[in-house]
Amino acid sequence: INVANFRFSELSAEEINSPMKKLAFRNADLTDESFNELLKLLRYAPELLQAEFDDCALDGVGDFQPSESDIVRELGKVETLIIRRLHIPRFYSFNDLRSVYSLLEKVKRITVENSKVFLVPCEFSQRLRSLEFLDLSENLMVEEYLRNSACEGAWPSLQTLILSQNYLKSIERTGEILLTLKNLTGLDISRNSFRPMPDTCRWPPKMRFLNLSSTGIWAVKTCIPQTLEVLDVSNNNLDSFSLFLPRLRELYLSRNKLKTLPDGSLFPVLLVMKIRENALSTFSKDQLGSFPKLETLEAGDNHFICSCELLSFTLGQPALSQVLPDWPDSYLCDSPPRLRGQRVQEARPSVL
Q1: Which of 148, 172, 265, 292 has its CA at a distance of 20 to 30 angstroms from the CA of residue 77?
Q2: CB atoms near residue 228 (< 10 Å)
Q3: Cα 186 off chain centre by
Q4: What are phi and psi of 10, to 5 degrees?
Q5: PROSITE patterns from the xrefs (predicted)?
Q6: pLDDT tens-digit readout, 34-64
Q7: Pair 23, 46: CB distance under 8 Å
Q8: What pLDDT score does 3 carry?
Q9: Residues with Cβ < 8 Å from 24, sequence gap 6 or more?
Q10: Does 286 score more than 90 pLDDT?
Q11: Residue 49 phi/psi, 5° resolution?
Q12: In this structure, are residues 305 and 328 in contact, taking their beta carbons and an 8 Å threshold?
């Protein structure tokens, strides 16, 4: 739909009282002027909670100036704003959005994905006092500008920050920059290309969830915060994992190069571990027994050697399916050659 020339027809507020909860624009063409007009819809949709713009184009420079006689000061009850793949032809002439600062002060969740965002001005971040969730995936953020965006007093209520697939390079600098976010519990910095991890890093004090998947890291060091309850380092180049994480409940290690299960004594409260598509050849009763509280282990699609030891263990554990949700279909023999491709559960080697 082309709403570039949209003009709102005035109605008295008593005439329309829409129960609409969500308003979404897809493949819409907007201008600065038509955006100002769309804001006038808010007074007729008092129950609106979510606004979404997908694959839209904005032919303008962000000069959102509702007329003073009809100015909209806030977004009513709107708590969630989602913008995906917004195309702005005059991107490098775009304003700093100062005119919409007041509009977004009560919004709790904002997603601006794949829209060439490289900076959230410090003053804007400080005005987003109610913001709890911010997703800036697939944008142009680098550490230098992130420091300005996460300045002192920025996003004071923020709990979850997603910076997946940006241009971050240093795990150490990223953690240090985000120290201003005192309430941050979840950080997703996956799909960035990080340099080698240092031994020590500083992180926000309440961090519980960290996603470092698909970042090209070769080793996990004590830079990782010990406050974590969930850690995702899947799809990297790890060949070992020996880090003590006393509060960790979930560990995601799939698509790495690990040859053995990590030592369970490093994770005294671990409940879930996923280690699919690594280089595991076997696991034993002792290895599984080293995890005192493990309830779920996904270890399928590895290169299992169907030795007498492994087969006697699996045959002697009829309750394996309770711990291994992907058992038995994802557990195939890689060797010896005669058993290759058979399910471990059904493999029967010769007496020799």
Answers
A1: 148
A2: 20
A3: 8
A4: -65, 140
A5: LRR (PS51450)
A6: 888 888 888 888 899 999 999 999 998 888 7
A7: no
A8: 86
A9: 51, 52, 53, 54
A10: no
A11: -110, -25
A12: no
Q: What is the pLDDT of residue 67?
A: 52
pLDDT tens for each residue of 230-257: 999 999 999 999 999 999 999 999 999 9
Name beta bridge partners: 87: 57
- The predicted model scores a pTM of 0.92
Mean local confidence (pLDDT), 92-120:
88
Q: Is 2 helix (H, G, I), strand (E, B) or coil?
A: strand
Give the number of other CB atoms < 10 A from CB of residue 28.
19
Residue type for position 53: F
Nearest to 206 by CA among 223, 229, 233, 231: 229
**Calpha distance 296→345 (Å, rounded):** 18
Q: Choose among 218, 249, 243: nearest CA to 231.
A: 249
> How many angstroms separate the CA atoms of 105 and 100, rounded?
9
What percentage of residues in the chain have a pLDDT greater than 70? Answer: 96
* Token pair belonging to 249: 């409940």
Q: Residue 15: its pLDDT value, please? A: 67
Helix (H) or strand (E) holding 35: helix 32-39
SS3 annotation, 246-298: CCCCEEECCCCCCCCCCCHHHCCCCCEEECCCCCCCCCCHHHHHCCCCCCEEE
In the numeric block, the tokens 């184009």 are attached to 57
Q: What is the DSSP string of 307-330?
A: -HHHHHHHHT-TTHHHH-TTTTTT
Which phi and psi angles does 261 have, rounded to 5°? Answer: -65, 145
Q: Where are the beta strands (DSSP E) in the chain?
A: 22-26, 29-31, 50-54, 57-59, 80-84, 109-113, 133-135, 160-162, 186-188, 209-211, 230-232, 250-252, 272-274, 296-298, 304-305, 333-335
- Distance from C-alpha of 183 to C-alpha of 279, rounded to nearest angstrom: 38
Omega within 30 of 0 (cis) for the link into 121: no
pLDDT tens-place string over residues 110-163: 999 999 999 999 999 999 999 999 999 999 999 999 999 999 999 999 999 999
Structure tokens at 309: 């030891």
